[in-house]
Design a protein that fits this description.
The chain has eleven helices and eight strands. The chain is α/β, with parallel strands linked by helices.
Amino acid sequence: MPQRSPFRYPGGKTWLVPHIRSWLASKTPRVSVLVEPFAGGGIVGLTAAFEDLAHHVVLVERDPHVAAVWQTILDGQAQWLADHIQNFDLNPTAARKILDQEPLTQRERAFTTLLRNRVQRGGILAPGAGLLKSGENGRGLRSRWYPETLARRIQDIAAMRARFTFIAGDGNEVIRRYAASTNTAFFVDPPYTVAARRLYAYWQVDHRQLFGVLAGVNGDVLMTYDNTPTITALAREFGFATAPVAMKTTHHARRTELLVGKNLSWLGEVVNGPEAESGSGELELAFPA
């Protein structure tokens, strides 16, 4: 019996929850392979696997630091990582010591990446982000550090590792690899055109090339983007449908993001429902709750 995913949608992606479920649940037969070519924290792939919305999930990430997290969890080192997180005494001195040194092994790089994501302002992995000061609810550096929960999530993923394939590499290349399959779905959430440079170390994407590659696949496609004239024009040029989703951030600012796909008829009333609640826009790997 499928279970509801225990993973929280990160930061600004809360609004995606009903759309992802509706999109994948609308597929008959059930999606054989879901490819997430810009996986990051992999929340969509995790949801698809844990809720049995796809037989298998392929996660792709080219950032070697984020890739190290997935490789460590899925290649037999999850227990070491979970134990290391639970035993780490988080304080500014200890955090800075870890963040300032070059990891010697893949699993050490995974721990450093998770620590950086949880203690640097905005969860930003790109160089130059400072450490949290006041943090959430005045808890400072520990405000986003939940070691027991993080360890449990890692163990949950490892227990289902047969459902996942992880590829450290180029998303476009992997999309092409699965392009001929009619029962493969592609969820594509690339670094956005506006905020990508601030949030990501590996933010450069040729968006025109990406649209062209996705236009040639036989399976279904769902993309999420910032709602800009450039992206709307690319969607129109390559024959994709678009649907803006209105949302309100935690700071009560109103904005829209864009769903892009081959066919968005499955949206029904979801897109026209109550105004979606978005997070703060912080980057967050999906594992913690």
